Amino acid sequence: xxxxxxxxxxxxxxxxxxxxxxxxxxxxxxxxxxxxxxxxxxxxxxxxxxxxxxxxxxxxxxxxxxxxxxxxxxxxxxxxxxxxxxxxxxxxxxxxxxxxxxxxxxxxxxxxxxxxxxxxxxxxxxxxxxxxxxxxxxxxxxxxxxxxxxxxxxxxxxxxxxxxxxxxxxxxxxxxxxxxxxxxxxxxxxxxxxxxxxxxxxxxxxxxxxxxxxxxxxxxxxxxxxxxxxxxxxxxxxxxxxxxxxxxxxxxxxxxxxxxxxxxxxxxxxxxxxxxxx
Length: 278
What we know:
By secondary structure, the protein is α/β, with parallel strands linked by helices. The chain has one domain: 3-Layer(aba) Sandwich (Rossmann fold). The protein has nine helices and 14 strands.
């Protein structure tokens, strides 16, 4: 069981305050998306929850333990991170990269055990990349690399998975594939998932709970229906949208409106009135 409490957390970089008195409770097995405009604090909050950054004020509790009281190895045995960018300076194979996820369980200077190798083989199978095991990581496509990074995180065998923009720079097919895989892990393993994600429609389709941030504060927290309203999106992103329902799932889907939109609906079709004749 892995639960998370964020209590009155504030954080600032040298150029100013990023998070302001953030309070958040996430229970075991929840699947939560952090959404909001660029600079709203999504990635910073992920880094704080992972222990990479320390709050200026407030505290973050993992199963009741203050995160600041745990060392890096203890945190890594409880929280796995899929970063937005991951660079390997050497010609590592896919298996080598995934084995990095076993570091929290290795003694100093010790080689991986048979149990470590079994864990790697298992996550290669789960993520569907077994056939890539001997390929070089730097020769893979973007979608393949993202699966390898996810496999590395799963090799840590934690109960909480943090993802920072997991679908960034991926084509539509790979976006869906990655999120389908994450959702299946959430359901089958009761894995707690927290993801910073920029695509509102993907967040609505795959996450049961959305936390909308604006300028370092939580603007809304709830189901996609509760959070993805035209008024809240306008307030957060300073842009007008039309919110419809997905024809199959019924979840909210956000439709962007051009700046010259001033029309009305006629038979369900938005009418655009341009400023000039065409």
